[in-house]
Specification:
By secondary structure, the protein is an all-alpha fold. It has 3 helices and no strands. It has a domain of 38 residues. The radius of gyration is 30 Å and the shape is elongated.
Length: 79
């Protein structure tokens, strides 16, 4: 009895697959590959920036903050 059910289900799925037709060629897969490569490069760059920023000392952070504030101050004066 089980064998008949399995055969019936298999036959129905084969008919459904045949009704769908052959696979269609949608074009080049290079753009999709470029998306994945770009996402990988972006992830590596973000991870590099995070790890590099974690190892900065307090003096380096203060130097960066003061340089940023100085830059903003000069831009405001040039307006």
């Amino acid at each position: 009895m089980r064998i008949l059910i399995v055969l019936a289900v298999t036959a129905a799925s084969v008919r459904a697959a045949m009704a769908q037709g052959l696979p269609v060629e949608t074009g080049s897969q290079i753009p999709v590959a470029l998306w994945f490569v770009g996402a990988g490069i972006l992830g590596i760059a973000i991870a590099y920036g995070i790890f590099r920023n974690r190892n900065r000392s307090r003096a380096e952070r203060q130097l960066t903050n003061s340089a940023t504030k100085d830059l903003y101050r000069r831009e405001e004066q040039n307006r």
